[in-house]
Structures are given as structure tokens and as C-alpha cells.
Amino acid sequence: MADPPSSFPHPLYEKFVLKPFFEDAKSYYYRPMLAANRAHVVMLCRCGIITPDNAKALLGGLGRIERDGVDSLHYHSGVEDLFFAMEGKLIEITGPEFGGNLQLARSRNDLGYALTRLALRPLLLDAIDDLLQLRQCLAEFAQRHTGTLMPGYTHTQPAQPTTMAHYIAGILSSLERDAARLKFAHATNNQSPLGAAALTGSAFPIDRQLLADLLGFDNAQLSTYDSIGASDNLTDVAGALSTLGVNLSRFTRDMLFWATQESGAIRIHDSFIQISSIMPQKRNPVVLEHLRARISRMLARAHGITIQCHNVPYGDTQDIEDEIFPLLFGSLETAAEILQLYTAVIDTLHVNVEHLARRAAAGFTTVTELADTLVRQCGLPFRQAHGIVSALVRHALENNLSPEDLDAETLQAIAEANFGLAIELEAESFRRALDPSVFVGARDLPGGAAPAATAAVLDVLRSGIGQDRHWLESVRGQLEDARGQLDDASHQILDMPA
Predict the structure, then answer these.
(1) Is there a single domain that holds both residue 75 and residue 207?
(2) Secondary structure of the chain in the HEC alphabet?
(3) Domain end among 353, 384, 410
(4) How many domains does the chain have?
(5) What is the pLDDT of residue 10?
(6) Does residue 279 fall inside a structural domain?
(7) What integer best gives the mean pLDDT of the chain?
(8) Do 15 and 104 fall within a single domain?
(9) pLDDT the model gives residue 377
(10) How many angstroms separate the CA atoms of 171 and 422, rounded?
(11) What average pLDDT does the segment 146-155 reach?
(12) Does a structural domain hold residue 77?
């Protein structure tokens, strides 16, 4: 057995842990770390914990690090992470008497959890924005198809006629709730752990709310223990993305069926179609397969977040710090790809309207209305009407008849022969009962398939899109104001006379 290294770090620990995490931190933590350091310096100065000269030196040094850029910070063996690399460079620039005070009243614990929240925030807001774009695109698509008849399915079988807009309104309703879940995840995440230090807070007279305000957090977390122990800001993201993934995957499954030659409902735009290397006739809708695969990837990462947070101690632990980066940030980056790609697919999608209208009544999807008509016009109990219409369908199937081949006389003969009932139903009433457009038009209750009812639902959904757009613009405006507040506070210190 080889002798272990005499000092930290072990070469394999360095290879598999320290170096990769250093690069991850450069990608996700560099900008948040600069902002958090500046806010901390401003707070220390305002609270009288460090001198104005010390604050000025620190802010000047941080400005130089920012100008030099992230690539000026390099991993060195024994320098554990990006924080120590930045602090070390700051001490080089300002000297130990000033640079050594950056970490007063602070720990890598509260800083690290704050950086995760700061790095998550723009990705969450971008996901909400991308979802807004998809919802807007789907709303416009649905508006064009309020009268587009199509078969609605239950248990994968044609059930009743509906419209494409009615179906899409259902998808939009679920996506609106997905947006609400992402907004909730943002609210959970946008709380500041700064000031908790290692665990118990600090004996220095710091101002936790000032730190929160300067960095655009809604509030400081109430408990310092919770500040370094909480993981629900991570699992709320995972939960929101998991439900979004499930909702989109079910939509994708339907679209893949619609794109088959057997269904013929839609035509994916040529810019998303790949051909076969051997079969000249093939139009492979591979974009939907890529979407399905990426949704699976997002779901796997989201579930991984929850599993990695499960059963770890309630306190500072690497499981929910550096180790969770690939799952946490990867899930949101994959979500961005999915939402943007889906929007482009819907924006270019062609619906085979005439074909769908013909398919809307196939498979006797309208006969529920025929049973209802027998109740309304013939005074039959529904179960009896249901039995008569079931017998009519069995007769049609046994004799290879389509709905167009049936008439009121056949229905009356079946009612007499099978149930001993003499019913009278006008030919026009029979014909209208089997007409898919009449069927859909009669479903005019709130939320129903009738064009006017669906249009009313779309109005509400568009209003929700507008409200969420306003919310997003407001949040981004508040963050811009916080950045301005931090810039102004920093410049006030930097502009002080020597």
C-alpha cells in the first residue's frame, strides 16, 4: 500500500473534488461573490466595525479583481476554494492589515449559502421568463384554433369531440400553476442567510437587513441556524421543475402521437425534421424526442436534488453545497433549453385542420350527445338511453357501419327490438346529435369545449400571463435598484478623501 501524502490535499481529492469545484465556483459564484463581498464591506463600514480607510482599500481591491476578470483567479494546490483565492488576492493588493478584515463577522458557511441563493436567482427568473414566452406562444396558438375540431382521448382511445384550443387551454392551465410553483421557489430562495456566520451569528454589531437590502434579498432569514441549515430553497426548485417536467412530458407524448402518420393531426416544421439515411419518405420529428429526453434529464437532476438533500444533518454540510452544483444549476439550465425549444416548435407548428375535423366524429365520439338527446326529447332515464345508444354502436360495429351510415329509424328499431320501447326522434335531431360541431357547441358551460367558453378561459389565462409578466418586471426592477444602491454605497466610500 502506497504511503499517503504528508499534507493536504491528497492528489485524488484534489483531482476529483477541489479542482472541479473551483471551476464550478468560477462559473456560478464569481459575480455573486464580488457583490456579496462589496455589500459586506459597506455594512462593516456603516456599522463602525472597520474604518473608512479599511473599507476604501477593500472596495478598491475588489474593483481591481473585477477588472482583472475571473480568469485571473487560478487554482493552486492547498488553496481550498474560490473564496480563499479571492481573499488571498485581495490581501496581496491591500495588505494583510486591510485585506485580512474581509471575513470579519462572517463565515464561509453563511457566505456559501448566500452565494448559492444569489446564483440561483437569475436562473429561476430566466426559467419563469422562458415559461412566460411558452405560455404566450401557446395562448396565441390556441386563439387561432378555438374552432378546430379534434377527437379528445381518454385511456388513449377517442372519447368525445373537442377543439385544439380546448386541449391547449388545459395545458396552459397546468403551466400557469408551474409558473406559480417557480415563483414560490423564488420567494423561498430570495432570503438572506448573511450574518449567520458559522451558525450562531456574530458578536459584532452587524446589520443583517442592510446586507439583505444591498443584495436584493427580500429579507434576512429569521433564524441563524436555519440560515445555514435550510435546504428547502433547493427542494422547492426541484419540486417546481419536477412538476413542470411531468406536465411537459405528457404534452410531448401527445404531440408525438399527433405527428404520426396514423394520427396525421400536426406537421412539425421542416427546420425540426431529420430524414432517414435509407428511407426517402421519412420525416422524423426528432425535436420531440430530444425534448422528451431532456425533460427526462431535467427530472433526473431535480429528483437528484431532493435525494441529495434527504437525510443529511440539519446544518452546514457539503452535500448541499458544492456537491449539489451539477444537479441544481444543471436542472435549471436544461429547463431553459426545453422551454425555449418548445416555444420555437409551437411557433412553427402546422395543424391539419380538415383532417382533424373528419377524425373528430370517428369512433362514435359523439354518441354521448345522442344519449343526452334521448333524455331531453324522449323523456328516457339516462341509463336507459345509454343502453339504447350502446346497442346502436354495437350494431354499427358488427355491420361495419360508420356514424354517417346511421339514422333515426335504425335507432328506433333497435330500441323496439332490444328494449321494447317505442321512441320517436326526428331525423334532424338524430343528425345534429352526431354532428361534432354541434356536440362541441353545446358544451358552453364555464371551461367547456365550446369556442366561446374556451375563448373566455383563454382570456383569463392571458390575464395571468400579463400579471406574471408584471411580477417579473417588478422583481427585476427591484434587483436593479438594489444593484444601484450597492454601487452608490460603494462609490460613497471610494470617493471619501484620504
Answers:
(1) yes
(2) CCCCCCCCCCHHHHHHHHHHHHHHHHHHCHHHHHHHHHHHHHHHHHCCCCCHHHHHHHHHHHHHHHHHCHHHCCCCCCCCCHHHHHHHHHHHHHCHHHHCCCCCCCCHHHHHHHHHHHHHHHHHHHHHHHHHHHHHHHHHHHHCCCCCEEEEEECCEEEEEEEHHHHHHHHHHHHHHHHHHHHHHHHHHCEECCCCCCCCCCCCCCCHHHHHHHCCCCEECCCHHHHHHCCHHHHHHHHHHHHHHHHHHHHHHHHHHHCCCCCCCEECCHHHCECCCCCCCCCECHHHHHHHHHHHHHHHHHHHHHHHHCCCCCCCCHHHCHHHHHHHHHHHHHHHHHHHHHHHHHHCCEECHHHHHHHHCCCCCCHHHHHHHHHHHHCCCHHHHHHHHHHHHHHHHHCCCCHHHCCHHHHHHHHHHHHCCCCCCCHHHHHHHCCHHHHHHHCCCCCCCCHHHHHHHHHHHHHHHHHHHHHHHHHHHHHHHHHHHHHHHHHHHHCCCC
(3) 353
(4) 3
(5) 87
(6) yes
(7) 93
(8) yes
(9) 86
(10) 45
(11) 93
(12) yes
What lies within 8 Å, CB to CB, of 232 at 6+ separation is 188
Q: How many residues does the chain have?
A: 498
- For the stretch 214-265, pLDDT in tens is 999 999 999 999 999 999 999 999 999 999 999 999 999 999 999 998 898 9
Would you say 312 and 319 are in contact if contact means Cβ atoms under 8 Å apart?
yes
Higher pLDDT among residues 61 and 73, named by residue? 61
Residue 467 has φ and ψ, to the nearest 5°, of -65, -40
| 216 lies in the same domain as 114 | yes
Domain hosting residue 491, numbered range: 7-122+192-230+474-498
Does a structural domain hold residue 331? yes
Residue 178 in domain: no
**How much is the average pLDDT of 112-132?**
97
Q: How does pLDDT run across 260-317, given as a tens digit for each residue?
A: 988 989 999 988 887 766 776 778 889 999 999 999 999 999 999 999 999 999 988 8
Q: Is the same domain home to 224 and 235? A: no
Same structural domain, 324 and 411: no
> CATH number, domain at 370?
1.10.40.30
Listed residues 379, 407, 434: the one ending a domain: 434
pLDDT more than 70, % of the chain: 98
pLDDT of residue 492 exceeding 80: yes
Q: Are residues 320 and 366 in the same domain?
A: no
Work out the number of other CB atoms within 10 angstroms of the CB of residue 286: 14
Tell me how crowded residue 443 is: count the other CB atoms within 10 A of its CB.
19
Same domain, 14 and 109: yes
